[in-house]
């Protein structure tokens, strides 16, 4: 361990993942700044971006190694980071923006550290996925982050088709260059009436959230294209025919630990059914007991 003063106490040994702002620089957490200040070795997906963030918040590099770790150099950079951990040094890794390992090269680094027996820690913070979910207006009780769709239309449509029946809010990242084509494929594979939201430049100056059906969002892009970082969210299917046996089984399971009102609400959300109908089914089940 180095002998610099540590205002926040001794940093636990191991690899520390920190989340960095997706836009506004002040969104970084105090704990992340502490870790950046105290770590022996600093690794980053983009060293220039992290160096600038440290300068904004007055965190000196102080002669410590600043290691670039990204998709193109992971095989070469990982051994250097693992050697530092083996020497008992503390290492911090930061994504270019957001939470490490979410559409980020940090996954292989984390796996390698775990397999080698080193402690791995996480300091939670900014996340485009959760930020978009919060402002979308779509159900947040269950969601699935699917990442970036394939680039070609045939592969993208096949890939999107797999998510059509998932009973959760779907979250995708997409390039502004391809988002119009992607929405067109979503309309074809998931249906034009499925509710959705398109979020761009979250926490930045030109932040915008568009809400509506997939068809409405597609038409909106034709009239007013978008630029910047894009997150697309799609609601679960609301009009599919639910299997009565599956609905009853889900309701019975929840009634073991929940009140009828709460159980009915969750099952109604899961299957896209009117809450009143599920509640009445619950009453009938209770009468049979």
TrEMBL record:
<dbReference type="InterPro" id="IPR035996">
    <property type="entry name" value="4pyrrol_Methylase_sf"/>
</dbReference>
<feature type="domain" description="Tetrapyrrole methylase">
    <location>
        <begin position="15"/>
        <end position="217"/>
    </location>
</feature>
<keyword id="KW-0698">rRNA processing</keyword>
<keyword id="KW-0489">Methyltransferase</keyword>
<dbReference type="InterPro" id="IPR053910">
    <property type="entry name" value="RsmI_HTH"/>
</dbReference>
<dbReference type="InterPro" id="IPR000878">
    <property type="entry name" value="4pyrrol_Mease"/>
</dbReference>
<dbReference type="GO" id="GO:0005737">
    <property type="term" value="C:cytoplasm"/>
</dbReference>
<keyword id="KW-0963">Cytoplasm</keyword>
<comment type="similarity">
    <text>Belongs to the methyltransferase superfamily. RsmI family.</text>
</comment>
<protein>
    <recommendedName>
        <fullName>Ribosomal RNA small subunit methyltransferase I</fullName>
        <ecNumber>2.1.1.198</ecNumber>
    </recommendedName>
</protein>
<dbReference type="Pfam" id="PF00590">
    <property type="entry name" value="TP_methylase"/>
</dbReference>
<dbReference type="InterPro" id="IPR008189">
    <property type="entry name" value="rRNA_ssu_MeTfrase_I"/>
</dbReference>
<dbReference type="InterPro" id="IPR014776">
    <property type="entry name" value="4pyrrole_Mease_sub2"/>
</dbReference>
<feature type="domain" description="RsmI HTH">
    <location>
        <begin position="242"/>
        <end position="285"/>
    </location>
</feature>
<dbReference type="InterPro" id="IPR014777">
    <property type="entry name" value="4pyrrole_Mease_sub1"/>
</dbReference>
<dbReference type="GO" id="GO:0070677">
    <property type="term" value="F:rRNA (cytosine-2'-O-)-methyltransferase activity"/>
</dbReference>
<keyword id="KW-0808">Transferase</keyword>
<comment type="function">
    <text>Catalyzes the 2'-O-methylation of the ribose of cytidine 1402 (C1402) in 16S rRNA.</text>
</comment>
<keyword id="KW-0949">S-adenosyl-L-methionine</keyword>
<dbReference type="Pfam" id="PF23016">
    <property type="entry name" value="RsmI_C"/>
</dbReference>
């Amino acid at each position: 361990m180095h002998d610099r003063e540590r205002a926040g106490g001794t940093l636990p040994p191991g690899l520390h993942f920190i989340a960095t702002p997706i836009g506004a620089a002040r969104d970084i957490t105090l704990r992340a700044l502490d870790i950046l200040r105290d770590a022996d070795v600093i690794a980053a997906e983009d060293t220039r971006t992290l160096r600038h963030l440290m300068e904004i918040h007055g965190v000196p590099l102080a002669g410590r190694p600043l290691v670039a770790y990204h998709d193109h150099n992971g095989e070469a950079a990982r051994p250097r980071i693992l050697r530092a951990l083996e020497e008992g040094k503390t290492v911090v890794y930061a994504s270019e923006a957001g939470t490490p390992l979410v559409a980020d090269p940090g996954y292989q680094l984390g796996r390698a550290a775990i397999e080698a027996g080193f402690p791995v820690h996480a300091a939670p913070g900014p996340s485009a996925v959760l930020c978009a979910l919060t402002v979308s207006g779509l159900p947040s009780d269950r969601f699935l982050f699917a990442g970036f769709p394939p680039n070609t239309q045939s592969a993208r449509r096949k890939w999107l088709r797999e998510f059509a029946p998932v009973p959760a809010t779907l979250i995708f990242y997409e390039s502004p260059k391809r988002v119009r084509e992607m929405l067109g494929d979503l309309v074809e594979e998931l249906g034009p009436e499925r509710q959705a939201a398109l979020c761009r430049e979250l926490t930045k100056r030109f932040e915008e959230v568009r809400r509506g059906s997939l068809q409405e969002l597609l038409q909106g892009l034709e009239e007013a294209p978008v630029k910047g970082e894009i997150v697309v969210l799609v609601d679960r299917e609301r009009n599919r025919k639910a299997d009565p046996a599956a609905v009853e089984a889900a309701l019975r399971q929840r009634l073991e630990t929940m009140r009828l009102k709460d159980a009915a609400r969750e099952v109604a959300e899961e299957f896209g059914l009117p809450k009143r109908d599920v509640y009445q089914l619950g009453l009938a089940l209770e009468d049979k007991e």
